[in-house]
Fold each of these.
Amino acid sequence: MDFLNALVTLSNFMLVPALAYGSQLALGALGITLIYSILRFAHFAHGDTMALGTAAVIGATFLLQGAGIGIAPLPTALLAVPFGVVAMVLYLLAADRLVYRYYRRVRAKPMIFVMASLGVMFVTNGITRLFMGVGETRFEDGARFVFNVRDFRDFTGLAEGLALRNAQAITIVTALIVMVALFWFLNRTRAGKSMRAYSDNEDLALLSGINPERVVTITWVITGILLVLAGTLYGLDKGFRAFNYFQLLLPMFAAAILGGLGNPLGAIVGAYVVALAEMGVTFAWRRVAGHLLPEGLEPSGMVQLLPVDYKFAVTFMILVIVLLFRPTGIFKGKVL
Amino acid sequence: MTARGYVLFAVMALVLAAVGAFQSWQLALTILNMSLISAIMALGVNMQWGFAGLFNVGVMGFTAVGGLAVVLVAQPPVPDAWAAGGPGALLGLLLGVASILAAVLVYKRLPKGRLRGLAVFGVLVVGYFITSAVFGPATQAIEAVNPASEGYLGGLGLPVVLAWPVGALFAAAVAWAVGKVSLGLRSDYLAIATLGISEIVIAVLKFEGWMSRGVNNVTGIDRPVTRPVDLQAAPWVQSLADTLGWDVQQAASVVSGLGYAGLFALVLGALIWLSERAWNSPWGRMMRAIRDNEVSARAMGKDVTQRHLAIFVLGSALCGLAGAMMVSMDGQLTPGSYEPLRFTFLIWVMVIVGGSGNNWGAVLGGFIVWFLWVQVEPAGRWFMELVTSGMADTSDLKAHLLSSASYMRLLTMGVALLLMLRFAPRGLIPER
Amino acid sequence: MADPFLIGDAMTGGYGGADILHDCTIAVEKGQIAVIVGPNGAGKSTAMKAVFGMLKLRAGAVRLDGRDITQLTPQARVREGMGFVPQTGNIFPSMTVEENLEMGAFIRRDDIAATMEQVYDLFPILRDKRGQAAGELSGGQRQQVAVGRALMTQPKLLMLDEPTAGVSPIVMDELFDRIIEIARTGISILMVEQNARQALEIADKGYVLVQGANRFTDTGQALLADPDVRKSFLGG
């Protein structure tokens, strides 16, 4: 029984949140990895574009709520996602036409692209703050829990409880659907295959009659969808604050590099590893240990390896370990 | 420097003078002093980017570490805190370092395989628990000592100017560690690694209260120039105020500001002189050769990674120096105020706008961009007022737009960066 | 006399700097094999790239089936019925063999199953490895994928840039056999080769280039018999 209680506590406070967080990271890291393999640069505007996309969704959510349209018990934001996606795809394509396309034409060095993405990041950040300010905005509505701690305890008769928040369940399910759809697209459709071909061998793709501009456009469209979903799910789960999205940049990059830059499957695996590591190292293991250890040996402290404030340090350590021992990532990078 | 450069600097000086004449001399000096500091940071980033093509996205971290040096060097020690847990904290740090070294040793000694991985892991876990058993209680004891005003170990109580080179040294040490890990790999890895380390440095500053007082800030740090409040009492300042027809307060702050300006200009001047020498030396030529064609430089037997590491450390040291100068000018360390957009990416805008690969360009960029950063906000407010002038005063939208005016400057900086990169990628004063 | 099926006529040009090709002419008849040989740096690959439109000509013209295609981009030439197998980077390494072939046929909108069957008949080993990533195959098999990919557009002319570079002699013979087989189906072959002797043996027409200009031009057999060619280029 004690083992079960330990497992339930662990799930409630760490596994489920980590799974949700990992799913959000995975959608973000997938975008980074796609851009890296097609446009061949590290997209530093990713976090801030995610924030702007979420801002668009929040705007549409408020309008829908104002009009009394909802899909309770699901959050209204899900209904607003398509608006956000359209807005962000248009925004990203505009950025591509106005900024990146020129550097593609002159075949600029990757670092120049990164620099340009910094400029886009600034602008995006400014626009987001113009609309949303710097404070926190909550936009989750509908039911809060799929089941809560008390339901779970009553149902199982265990001492410890497990809650599944609506936002977490939606995140995990959505991420799963999106990932399956993405892999289907990349492996089964003509457009998806042409993206992989372009990523594999740009010159030969050209020779084969694949239009690079089309591939780039498709990439931005997919990235836009992934971005808005990732941002919205993260916002539903944890509330919207522009700066938090910027800070997601590090774990997303770490996930993409850990999995092997340019490798979508790697990005997903990397994201869950990063999420589990962040939560695991900053988790207070006291209650779990209390259930597992024999009577009288319960730990007195929190049994927390690092304070929560250092979750970036965990991500960074993962990054350092990867760079030191396997710079190509778990799955060899640079393949799509 | 070319004639164009002289003209641009002269225009910049005129603009600052105009701010002094039409707004206030205090403001002009505040802008000037921060510009001087920004110019040093830009010089550092320009070394990395302009000389070597290295992309450092962690400027904020290096400046913050420099700022920490000021606290550790110049603040008076807190004897009670030292008595409460000083030795424990130091021992804890030593133990932490020792366990990492032990892990490295195990890694180097043991043959490759599962055993090695487990052994390294084991050493780290044991080391971690020993370290935290010593470190945790000691830091808690320190933070419990008079938490309202102290709660940290304090510094060494040495003259504050000494903290500047120490700040550079701190930043150099951090840069060395980051560079060691990420240089020699794909070029964007350095960018991502520096992004990470700067977040961590800020986290350490914010949450290691025993060292930096964390978000409680360290205030009242000794200053290299007499504070305006103390200057007001000086007879010569009072007579100066009389002569100029200003009030004493204003005169005192202008004098103090001028003092900083002189000090900073001295440092910046020396650094420019050194950078110019370096740029024109065989070493500088070699760095540019490596930047322009890494493959052939490698083929010629240059250890590119080692050279990159050296210049990365050097450039980061300049950022640390500037960070230390900034904290000693403000007289306070406020870890909560470090923000990447302001301390990392704005510096990048300076370098790109000014002219990457040109020391004078970077300096000019520091001046122009800092000036814009300060002045765009009122301009943005004015613009928003213009835009919203047709709206009813009670309109929510109007209130919202007016309150968001300050974010206009992020937008402006981004647009400036993009336009420069696209249409004048060599900057205002291009590389020769 | 009517033009050959493909002719790069009196081509002069280079990659922007000094000219590499000087008044160089390369031609191939329908269903025949033409081989370009010559010492290192003679401009063999450059001549082929010029025919394919990968460098700008200062003078001269390229005509395919009587049509002037000098101004067309390489991609447009693919649509006109030219297939090109680069020397390196000629496959999509992370994609399966079958996907490589599919990508080869990217510009086609009709059913490609029949063409793919033909390629598999030509290179049976590829049929066995159709689900495997092309990058994991051996050197000879990768070349087969590369040739197969180029055949997927059903070209009228196939250009091969050193197809046997880096493969073993046995695999080389095998590849040459396949190339002859391809030519028998009516596809013209233009090929640059380092292994001059073996290549000339299967060539209907041989071009010996030196410093970007034609030095000897004749049938493969005649060149092999020519004592000058033997002495200078075939090692006696």
Amino acid sequence: MFAARLSSRVARPMAQRLMSEAAAPAASGNLVINFNLPHETIYDSKEVASVIIPGLAGEYGVTAGHSAIVSQMKAGVLQILHTDGGDAEKYFVPGGFALSHENSVTDITCPEAVKLDDLDAATITSNFADAKKEFDSAEEGSEAKAGAQIDMEVNRAMAFALGTTIA
Amino acid sequence: MATEKQLFQQINSTKNIMKITSSMKMVSAAKLKGDENRLYAARPFNKWATTITGPSTPMENEVEFANIPDNALIVPLTSDKGLCGGINSFISRGVRTMCGVLDGSGKKSSVVVVGDKGRSQMRRMVGDKLVSAATEVVTPYSFDLSAAITAEVLAAGNDYSCIVILHNKFVNSATYIQEYKVLMPMASTGDDEAMVEYEFEPDIKNEVLEDLGEYLLCSELHHALMEAAASEQSARMAAMENATKNAGEMVDKLTLQYNRARQARITTELIEIISGASAIEG
């Protein structure tokens, strides 16, 4: 019994490590990202210089050789710095997870993401107002109230990403 | 022997069926295109989950079912609509075998089924294990749907030792195979602590792991649903093509019979006229 437990304890992380190694580490020493949505492949095994991830506990940057970390993302801006320099490519993400593995591969997974340039400030403001109205009218402690609160927070984060503040 | 009129009606109805099956084939071919595109987006999306959970196991080796832990929740993905070859029967048979093997080794198991076809078959085969069913799901499948099904599966109970997703995997438009994947819960402490080599941010591993686990299930289910949808459509396409071909052969055969019957009638009539005429002459 003890042996079985021990072996499963050793075998699983080992299998994991083997598997993540199989997922093709960067040959050139760059960071490799997988950034994909359920309905769209944005970057699959793409080499980049670094990414800046909006973690729930604060923004942080990931470059090649980053220690293994699992991070829950908040609604915010995800920045990708490409190897050829230039401005960061900015995406707005509503939340999700970022997993940096030991082999310089980082998986970013979220249900939706839009380019920051595609956000429309006027629509955000009106959506925020709608969500706020719903939040105020919804019953205390109900699912609708929680949903409206999430709506408000995401819209506020979107406005913040565009450099405006809505209350 | 059918009469001439019966044969004629049979030919007509077979021709109508042929029209239906051939248009169903074309509809499936068009839908398959969309399902394939969605599948090719879902595969890279689920890559992060595969690095944690490992690849799926093909369902050819029944002995391996014994490795599934006690008190497992089996989630077979089937379709709501029929006329798509054996895809649902293969899955149902797999669940029956799996439950049989688990019963044999004294392990408990429960089933939450997705799809109407699977539900009716499962109720017959393993009715005592069926906990709930998600049927009449909206097509085409989306991430929202995957999230809803995840909620359904999670609502079935959290006290299961693992979740086994069982589905058809799309290989190409002529082939699909049955696969299953065992998703173990991720413990944040103890001997079986998951993801030990990772740091967690925010630094509350149990909470992050719980969220991650639910999201992982959703991601895996999404991928599996997409595989199942593409398999269903490709299987329907193949089934309808065969049906159209068979109907064509049947029409040919019936036409031959019909012509023979008509010729026989004409010959009989001629003989009657000739013999009548010769009787008058004679």
